[in-house]
């Protein structure tokens, strides 16, 4: 029906004078209607998801930010797509923020992730975990997330193997059971973080703030804790074999 109306308006343009006020108002109305119809909310969630996947990371940061926002809305309103979207976002982070070997990284704790990577991490961190399927795991391994803001993030059981989280804000984050083997957490803020049962084997925690952190039964085998703040940290049952503390 809309196509018929548009064709009729175009035909009228060839007949009526160009300065016809009624025709001008009709053209403006048609333009406004087209914009409204083709806005994301008028598309099916499946269409929006497909378009988002095609656009994510392929254009500007501004486009990526808009797409990430749209993906979060779809995940919130359509539970059947929740986990798929979390996987899309973790893949986006892994592919666009690749891990840099520690020996190649200059020790700059003020380094920050890009705005689109931070936006993706924020959506992941504040997702509704009740919609996560059982026995599934978020994969953020081998990623460069230096300086990321993950305050109160829910990253329980997340795979963060060899992730670079130097200078990251993980204050009150839930990292229970997370895999942080060989991760770089130098200077990270882990104040009151829950690391119960987390695997931190060979992790670099130099200068990290672990005040009040729960490390109950965590594995810190070969971890480096030089200059780390451990005031009121819970270390009951933790594996501290060959852990390096400040001398």
Describe the fold and architecture:
This protein has 247 residues and is an all-alpha fold. The chain has one domain (43-245): Pectate Lyase C-like, CATH 2.160.20. 34% of the residues lie in helices and 2% in strands. It has 6 helices and 2 strands. The protein has helices spanning 2-15, 21-37, 45-55, 61-77, 82-96, 115-125, and strands at residues 224-225, 244-245. Strands 1-2 form a two-stranded parallel sheet. The N and C termini lie far apart (79 Å).
Structurally, the number of domains stands at 1
Question: How is the biggest beta sheet arranged?
Answer: 2 strands, parallel
CATH class: Mainly Beta
> What is the H/E string?
HHHHHHEE
Q: What class would the helix/strand composition place it in?
A: mainly alpha
> Can you give the mean pLDDT?
85
Count of strand segments: 2
Which spans have pLDDT < 50 for at least 5 consecutive residues? 1-6
Strand content: under 5%
Strand order of the largest sheet: 1-2
Task: Tell me the overall shape.
Answer: elongated
The helix content, as a percent range, equals 25-40%
Roughly how many Å is the radius of gyration?
25 Å
């Amino acid at each position: 029906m809309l196509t018929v109306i548009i064709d009729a308006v175009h035909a009228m343009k060839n007949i009526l004078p160009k300065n016809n006020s009624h025709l001008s108002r009709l053209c403006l109305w048609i333009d406004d209607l087209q914009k409204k119809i083709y806005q994301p909310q008028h598309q099916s969630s499946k269409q929006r998801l497909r378009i988002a996947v095609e656009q994510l990371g392929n254009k500007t940061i501004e486009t990526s930010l808009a797409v990430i926002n749209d993906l979060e809305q779809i995940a919130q309103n359509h539970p059947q797509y929740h986990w798929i979207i979390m996987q899309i976002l973790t893949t986006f982070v892994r592919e666009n923020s690749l891990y840099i070997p520690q020996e190649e990284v200059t020790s700059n704790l003020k380094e920050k992730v890009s705005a689109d990577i931070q936006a993706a991490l924020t959506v992941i961190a504040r997702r509704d975990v009740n919609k996560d399927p059982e026995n599934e795991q978020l994969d953020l391994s081998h990623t460069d997330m230096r300086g990321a803001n993950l305050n109160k993030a829910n990253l329980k059981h997340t795979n963060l193997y060899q992730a670079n989280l130097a200078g990251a804000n993980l204050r009150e984050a839930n990292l229970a059971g997370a895999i942080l083997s060989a991760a770089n957490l130098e200077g990270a803020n882990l104040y009151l973080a829950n690391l119960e049962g987390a695997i931190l084997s060979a992790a670099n925690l130099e200068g990290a703030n672990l005040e009040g952190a729960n490390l109950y039964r965590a594995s810190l085998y070969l971890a480096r804790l030089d200059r780390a703040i451990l005031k009121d940290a819970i270390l009951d049952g933790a594996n501290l074999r060959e852990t390096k503390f400040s001398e």
